[in-house]
Structures are given as C-alpha cells and as structure tokens.
C-alpha cells in the first residue's frame, strides 16, 4: 500500500448514495497485525493558512500531529508540566529560569541546546504579526549556560510557564528559520513524528521519529488530508477511508455508527452580550428581563440538535474545576443581589450575530422568539463576521450573540475575561465597566497559578454575571470521529493533542 494518502479527496455525497472516489482519494486502510507498522489516516477540517508557520494558528496542527514541541505542556487542569524543559523556577518577579531537557535531537539531527531555545523564542517575539499568546507581553529570552534559558517579562507575569506551552512558541531547529522570515517546520521539530512532506492545502505526511527523546510512537506515521466539506469528512469515517476525522457536523451524526462518534466539550461559550452603556439594556432591570427570557434547552435542541451543554456560567465543562467552584459562598453571594426582572412591553432592541459559524443565525432566530415572548420587539442584523465585528465592538447593537473561546493559548481564562469585561478590554462588546469587575480581574490576574488562581477566576466570573451584562447560553462541543481500528487518540478540549505516541491502528475487528 502507498505510504501516503495525501493526494486523495472525497466527492460530495448525497444521502444513501455510494461514496464517489475521485483520483487522489483516501487510500484503503492497510491491514496489519498490530499498530507498529501501520499508519494513521486523518481527515482535518481546515487546510494551513500560513504555510504551517508556528507563529500562526497553523501551529496547532503541528501540535496535534506531535511533530513540534514546546518547553512546557498543560495537563487537564491547565497546570504546566515538563516537555522540552524539565523544570523551572522564578528567579525574581520578572524572570524565570527553564532547564532544557538533555538528549533531545531535532529531526534534522541537530542537538537541542539552550541557545536554540532562546533563538526560537526570540524569533517568535520578533515575528510580524506576533503570536497571539504574546499580545501585550514584552518577553525576552537568553541562554543561561548550555542547559538553561532565562525568560523575562517587562512586568511580573505568573503565567509565563503556561504561555510557553502555546504551540505558537514551538521550538524548531535553526534550519527552520529562513532569511526571508519564512519558517519551514518540515524536518525541524523534536516530536515523535517527523513532518516529511506538505502538499499545499491538500495534505501532509509524517513518519515516526525513531530517535525521539521520549516514548516512541507506536504508529509508523500519519497521513493527513484537509477536507473542508463536512459531508465528505463524515463519509471518510463511514467508509473506513479515514481513521480519525475532525469536526463532524451534527447533522451527519445520525448517519454514522454511534460507536465511532465522540463528543468533546470545547472551551467555547455561545454568549449573549447586552449593551450596558446605552439603549434599553443600560437599565439593569431590563437586562434581568432578558436573562429570565432565555430558554437554553430550546436553543440547544433547536440549533445544536442536543449536542451542546447548557451554560451555568462563562466557563464550561472543558474546565471541570469551574462547576465545582460555583458552589462557593462568595460566588453565591455575588449573584444573590442581582436585580429582579423589570416589566418589558414592546421594548425595541437590535440583535446582531454573524454567519461564519453556521449555528449562530439559527440561535438568533430562536432567541428572537424567546425575547419577543417576553415583550421585546427584536430586529435582527446578521452579516459575515468581517463586516460586523467593528460595529459590535463600537456598541452599535443592543444585544450581540458571539461564539467565544474562553480559554486562550495560555490555558487560562483570565485573559479572556479581561478582554471582554475589563474597562480597557479590547473585546468589550457589552461596554461594561465597573470597579467591582476591575478589582476582581486584577486580583485574579495577579494570583499565582493553581487552586487560588482558579478560585479568584470564578469570583471574577460571578462578579461579571452579577451585572447581567452578559448571558451565557451554551457551551459548544466538537464531534470527533474514530474508526473501529484506531485506538489511543486524544480527545482534547483545547485542540492541541490528537495523535499521540500511544495511538495504534490495527485490522478492523
């Protein structure tokens, strides 16, 4: 069988029709006695947008393929764990020291050194645009001898280890960085799989790295195809021409074997932002009336076919500690004094959202019905995101529906809250600004990582919710497909992990 299934694509599929395989479609799965000599075929949603540059969102593909690695990785709770760095400590309020793992070689054979780490981080800092994880962060890195790196920030930042877990700060070999500023990750990572070929926006090929510093991969390699069409991705799972499939549309799930479908909670909340600066929702009692009008179960059933989680707060089940902390006395007290709903009778409001996420226009229709049943008169404005974002940020709408990532690249939700609800927040659609929220956000941001920071984060959530400036609606899920012949695939809410060293592929039972 050919080693790669890259140059294959699925034709559009009608219900009940056979899959039409065009030239260059997924190859038939190999049959072997174990996973050690088998390759994993993966159908991914989005093709690379920036040539797989680690400084872009393409970095998350490199992470999901386990070809590029960072100094630090995050555990399920979002706490920093060793990766290319074995340990770290805070030297002073502005400086951290990371010990670089010994015995690591890049895929081109170069031995990893502290100088290489400092150079890679420096290139990320100098990139234009800079990686998102470095927004507002003045970071420098320098080697401290042969085995350590000193990372400094202009102001004290307890999140430095978490920041260094971002795939956008992957450490690549010197040969990856070209004089023209472009970055080529092929053959220049440190992970258990070596990127050997990239076929533009069609696919990629990775082979097992037999010189990996950690546990070697069990699969012989990964064959990636980029398949933007959701029906085609679902067909690939149904016919067994892909082992792992990203982002199956909810409408395709009934056509699939339930044993092959796995729902993963996402750190993404579908939220209704209310304009607190002007218009009807400047009145807290009117905001409370909108809050009471929302029927989350109907939104989930109607727009998501039941494949979402009702939102009790800003942070959802992708952060399991959030629900546990909502019962804290301080959290409960913060919500106890919310105003009672006021009388609403014919109050006109504008409701905005965008078309780029397919479910949002349907959510808007259902939400309009719920709000009008409560006495509001709703006028919708639905456009492509590129043409509506500026108006939303300027406060042009009374209410705006947004699907919002609540955990950014550091794995910490405080930055999202500061952006959306801080007085100087760059994404403050609700136009909210209160001393109570500012104090709660500042306290959370200054607290060291761990249980105390999580408690402060939840108190900030409660302080925001107490204003009714925002109404969390639901938490989204991603639907991942895995064939019966694959095992050991990661189901990661942060979408950093997918194929692991333990992923195996065998003959279909």
Automatic annotation (TrEMBL):
The region annotated as signal peptide is 1-27
Top-level taxon of the source organism = Bacteria
Q: List, alphabetically, the SUPFAM superfamilies matched.
A: Periplasmic binding protein-like II (SSF53850)
The residues covered by the Solute-binding protein family domain are 81-426
Keyword Signal part of the UniProt annotation: yes
The Gene Ontology biological process terms listed for this entry are: peptide transport
GO MF: peptide transmembrane transporter activity
Q: Which UniProt keywords apply?
A: Signal
* Gene3D superfamilies tied to this protein: Dipeptide-binding Protein, Domain 3, Periplasmic binding protein-like II
What the entry lists under InterPro entries is as follows: Peptide/Ni-bd (IPR030678), SBP_5 (IPR039424), SBP_5_dom (IPR000914)
Gene Ontology cellular component list:
ATP-binding cassette (ABC) transporter complex; periplasmic space
What's this protein's name?
Peptide/nickel transport system substrate-binding protein
Species assigned in the record = Pseudonocardia ammonioxydans
């Amino acid at each position: 069988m050919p080693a790669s299934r890259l140059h294959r694509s699925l034709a559009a599929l009608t219900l009940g029709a056979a899959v039409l395989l065009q030239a260059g479609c997924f190859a038939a799965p190999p049959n072997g006695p174990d996973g050690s000599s088998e390759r994993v075929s993966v159908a991914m949603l989005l093709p690379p947008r920036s040539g797989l540059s680690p400084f872009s969102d393409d970095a998350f593909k490199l992470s999901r393929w386990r070809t590029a690695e960072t100094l630090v990785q995050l555990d399920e709770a979002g706490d920093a764990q060793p990766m290319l760095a074995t340990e770290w400590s805070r030297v002073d309020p502005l400086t951290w020291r990371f010990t670089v793992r010994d015995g690591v070689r890049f895929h081109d054979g170069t031995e990893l050194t502290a100088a290489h780490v400092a150079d890679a981080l420096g290139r990320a800092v100098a990139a234009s645009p800079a990686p998102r994880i470095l927004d507002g962060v003045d970071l420098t890195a320098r080697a401290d001898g042969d085995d350590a790196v000193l990372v400094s920030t202009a102001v004290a930042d307890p999140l430095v280890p978490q920041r260094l877990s971002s795939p956008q700060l992957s450490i690549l070999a010197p040969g990856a960085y070209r004089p023209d500023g472009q970055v080529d990750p092929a053959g220049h990572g440190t992970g258990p799989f070596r990127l050997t070929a990239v076929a533009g926006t069609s696919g990629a090929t990775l082979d097992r790295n037999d010189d990996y510093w950690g546990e070697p991969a069990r699969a012989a390699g990964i064959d990636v195809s980029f398949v933007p069409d959701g029906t085609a991705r679902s067909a690939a799972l149904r016919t067994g021409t892909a082992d792992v499939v990203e982002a199956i549309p909810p409408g395709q799930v009934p056509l699939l074997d339930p044993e092959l479908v796995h729902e993963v909670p996402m750190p993404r909340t579908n939220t209704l932002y209310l304009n607190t600066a002007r218009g009807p929702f400047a009145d807290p009692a009117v905001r409370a009336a909108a809050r009471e009008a929302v029927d989350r179960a109907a939104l989930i059933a109607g727009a998501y076919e039941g494949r979402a989680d009702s939102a009790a707060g800003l942070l959802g089940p992708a952060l399991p500690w959030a629900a546990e902390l909502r019962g804290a006395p301080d959290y409960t007290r913060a919500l106890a004094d919310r105003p009672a709903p006021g009388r609403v009778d014919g109050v006109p409001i504008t409701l905005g959202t965008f078309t780029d996420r397919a479910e949002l226009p349907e959510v808007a229709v259902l939400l309009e019905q719920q709000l009008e049943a409560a006495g509001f008169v709703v006028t919708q404005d639905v456009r492509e995101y590129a043409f509506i974002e500026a108006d939303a940020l300027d406060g042009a709408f009374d209410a705006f529906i947004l699907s919002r990532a609540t955990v950014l690249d550091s794995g910490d939700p405080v930055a999202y809250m500061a952006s959306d609800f801080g007085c100087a927040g760059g994404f403050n659609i609700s136009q909210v600004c209160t001393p109570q929220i500012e104090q709660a956000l500042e306290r959370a941001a200054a607290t060291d990582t761990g249980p105390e920071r999580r408690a402060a984060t939840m108190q900030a959530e409660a302080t925001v919710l107490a204003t009714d400036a925002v109404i969390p609606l639901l938490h989204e899920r991603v639907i991942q497909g895995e064939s019966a012949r694959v095992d050991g695939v990661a189901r990661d809410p942060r979408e950093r992990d997918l194929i692991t060293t333990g992923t195996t592929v065998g003959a279909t039972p």
